[in-house]
Design a protein that fits this description.
The protein is built from 21 helices and 4 strands. Strands 1-4 form a two-stranded parallel ribbon. A two-stranded antiparallel ribbon has the order 2-3. It starts with a strand and ends in a 13-residue tail after the last helix. The relative contact order is 0.15.
C-alpha cells in the first residue's frame, strides 16, 4: 500500500514516518545483533572449532562482507524498482534463518557458509531503509532520520554482547558438557535464540506503507522530466545479478561483445595472479580468494553499469564526491570493524576481564555512545548543511575521525582496565558521529531514482574495504606478534591519512558543485523544496 495521505505531523514530519522509522530501527538492531553476536562468543567458538585469530577475522569480516557487498548492488537496484518494504522483509527473513543456522554449525566451513547467508540477507537492510527514509522524511530532516536509524548499529552491537553472554552462559550452566540437548554448546544456543525472532519481525516490516518515491524532490532545474524507475521484473533482477555475481559476469560481458569479454577475462586473470602471489607471501588463501572474487565482481559491475545504465554510473563512479566519500568512509570502517571484532577479546585477553563485565560495561558504553554519536553527527550535519551546503557534513566526518583517534590510542596504550572502560564511550560516540555525517551526505547528494543503488555502493565500500580487510588484517598482525591484539589494532591505524585525503577530495568537489549551482540558480522568492545535487 502506498503512502499518499498527509496525516498530523510531529516536528514538521508526518507521524506515520516516525512510526516507520521506529520499525526500521528495530530491524537494524536485529541486523547488528545477528551480525555482532560472533564477537562476544569468540573464545568459545575458536576453542570448539579450533580456529585462529585470522580465521575468526575471516568469519566475522570477509565471509560476511564479500557476499554482503556482492548482493547489495542487485538488491539495491531491485529496491529502486520494487516495493522496498517487500524486499526488506524478505531479506530480514533470510538473514534471521541463516543466523539460526549458525547455531547448528559444527565446523569452520559450516559457520562460514551460514555467515555468507547472513551477509546476503542483510544486504537488503541498508539500501531499502535509506531509500525509504529519504521518502518518509524531507531533506532538512533526512540526515537526522538516517542517523536515528543508524543508531541501531550500536544498540544492536552492544545488546548482542549482553544477550550472547547471558544465553551462552545460562545454557552452559544449566546443561553441563555431558547433558547438552542435541549436543549444542552455549554459543550455538545463542545463535538459535537471536535468529528466530527476526522471522516474526519480517511480517511487521511487510505491513509498512510504501512511500511515494521521490516525494520530496523538486523537478530538475532544466524542466525536463525525471527518468521513470525501471519495472521490477524477475528478468531485470537476474540481469543485475549477472552483472556482478561470478561466473554469470562472463555471460553479461559476452553480450556486450568480444572486446568486453576479453577485458573481463583480463581483469579476472590479473586478480587471480595477484591473489595467488598474496596467498604465497601472506598465507590464508581463502581470504584472498574471497576478496579477489569480490573485487572482480565490483569491477565487472562498474563496467556493466557504464554500458547498461550510464546515469547510475555517472552518479556512483564518475562523481568525485561520491567516490571520495565512499572510499574515505570505507577506510574509516577498517578501524571500526576491527575494533568491533576484537575489542571485547582484547579486554578479556589483555586485562583478564570476565565476559559478563565486558558485555555490560564495554557493550553498554559502546551501544550508548554509538547511538548518541550517530544521531548527534546526523543532526549536526543537518544543522550545518541545511538543504544546500552538503560539503559541511564532510567536515563533521573529518573532525569526528580525528578526535576519535584520541581515546582509541589511549585504550591501546594503557594498562589500566579502568581507563579502557572510560575510553569506550567517547571513542564510539566520536566514531559514530562520522557515520551520521557520511550517511546524511550520501542520501542528499544523489537523485531519488538511484538512491538505493548509490546507498548499496556506499555499503559496498564499507564492507569490501572495512569489513573484509579490517578484522582480518588486525587478526593477522596480532598473530604475527604472538597473538598481541594491541599491536594488531594499532597497526591498522595506517589507513587514517588515506581516509582523510579521500574525504577532502569529496568535500572540495561538493564545494565546487555548490558554488556552481549557486551561480547558475536564478533569483527567486518564496520557499522551495530541495532536490539532490
Amino acid at each position: 500500500m502506498e503512502m499518499t495521505d498527509r496525516p498530523k505531523q510531529w516536528f514538521g514530519v508526518d507521524r506515520y514516518s516516525w512510526y516507520a522509522l521506529f520499525v526500521l530501527v528495530l530491524v537494524y538492531i536485529i541486523n547488528f545483533v545477528d551480525r555482532q553476536l560472533l564477537t562476544i562468543l569468540a573464545v568459545d567458538i575458536k576453542h570448539d572449532l579450533g580456529i585462529s585469530d585470522a580465521q575468526f577475522g575471516f568469519l566475522y569480516g570477509t565471509a560476511f562482507g564479500v557476499f554482503y557487498a556482492l548482493f547489495g548492488i542487485p538488491l539495491g537496484k531491485l529496491a529502486d524498482r520494487a516495493m522496498r518494504t517487500r524486499v526488506l522483509a524478505t531479506g530480514l527473513a533470510l538473514w534471521s534463518a541463516m543466523t539460526a543456522f549458525s547455531g547448528l554449525s559444527r565446523s569452520f566451513l559450516q559457520l562460514g557458509t551460514a555467515r555468507i547467508g547472513v551477509g546476503v540477507g542483510e544486504a537488503t537492510a541498508g539500501p531499502c531503509s535509506y531509500s525509504l527514509l529519504a521518502d518518509y522524511f524531507p531533506a532538512h530532516r533526512r540526515a537526522t532520520a538516517v542517523a536515528i536509524f543508524s543508531s541501531g548499529i550500536y544498540l544492536g552491537g552492544g545488546f548482542s554482547l549482553y544477550i550472547g553472554t547471558a544465553i551462552a552462559g545460562g545454557w552452559n550452566h544449566a546443561f553441563p558438557l555431558g547433558a547438552r540437548p542435541f549436543g549444542l554448546a552455549g554459543w550455538q544456543a545463542a545463535f538459535l535464540a537471536v535468529g528466530l525472532p527476526g522471522l516474526a519481525l519480517a511480517f511487521w516490516v511487510r505491513s509498512l506503507r510504501e512511500p511515494i518515491r521521490g516525494r520530496f524532490e523538486t523537478p530538475p532545474a532544466d524542466g525536463l522530466p525525471r527518468p521513470a524507475p525501471q519495472p521490477a521484473t524477475l528478468a531485470a533482477f537476474v540481469r543485475d545479478l549477472a552483472a556482478i555475481v561470478p561466473p554469470f559476469t562472463l555471460f553479461a560481458a559476452a553480450r556486450r561483445g568480444r572486446t568486453a569479454l576479453l577485458g573481463n577475462l583480463a581483469i579476472a586473470t590479473g586478480l587471480a595472479v595477484f591473489g595467488t602471489v598474496l596467498s604465497f607471501l601472506i598465507g590464508d588463501p581463502v581470504q584472498w580468494v574471497a576478496l579477489g572474487i569480490g573485487t572482480y565482481a565490483i569491477a565487472s559491475w562498474a563496467v556493466a553499469l557504464r554500458y547498461d545504465d550510464p546515469e547510475a554510473f555517472r552518479v556512483i563512479w564518475a562523481s568525485r564526491s561520491v567516490v571520495g566519500l565512499n572510499l574515505g568512509y570505507g577506510l574509516m570502517c577498517v578501524i571500526t570493524y576491527a575494533n568491533s571484532a576484537f575489542g571485547p577479546s582484547l579486554v578479556i585477553r589483555e586485562f583478564g576481564a570476565s565476559a559478563g563485565a565486558v558485555a555490560l560495561i564495554v557493550g553498554g558504553s559502546a551501544a550508548i555512545g554509538g547511538a548518541l554519536g550517530v544521531i548527534a553527527g546526523g543532526a549536526l550535519g543537518d544543522r550545518l548543511a541545511g538543504d544546500r551546503h552538503h560539503s559541511r557534513r564532510i567536515l563533521v566526518v573529518i573532525v569526528a575521525l580525528l578526535t576519535s583517534l584520541v581515546p582509541n590510542c589511549i585504550m591501546l596504550a594503557t594498562h589500566s582496565l579502568t581507563v579502557v572502560y572510560i575510553c569506550v564511550f567517547p571513542m564510539w560516540f566520536l566514531a559514530s558521529c562520522a557515520l551520521g555525517g557520511a550517511a546524511g551526505t550520501i542520501v542528499n547528494i544523489v537523485p531519488a531514482t538511484t538512491r538505493a543503488t548509490a546507498t548499496a555502493a556506499f555499503f559496498l565500500f564499507a564492507t569490501m574495504i572495512g569489513l573484509a580487510l579490517g578484522p582480518y588484517a588486525a587478526g593477522k598482525i596480532s598473530g604475527a606478534f604472538g597473538a598481541n591484539l594491541r599491536i594488531g589494532l594499532a597497526g591498522i591505524l595506517v589507513v587514517v591519512p588515506f581516509a582523510l585525503v579521500a574525504l577532502e577530495v569529496c568535500r572540495r568537489d561538493l564545494v565546487r558543485r555548490e558554488r556552481s549551482k549557486a551561480t547558475a540558480a536564478p533569483a527567486h522568492t518564496g520557499p522551495t523544496r530541495s532536490r539532490a545535487i
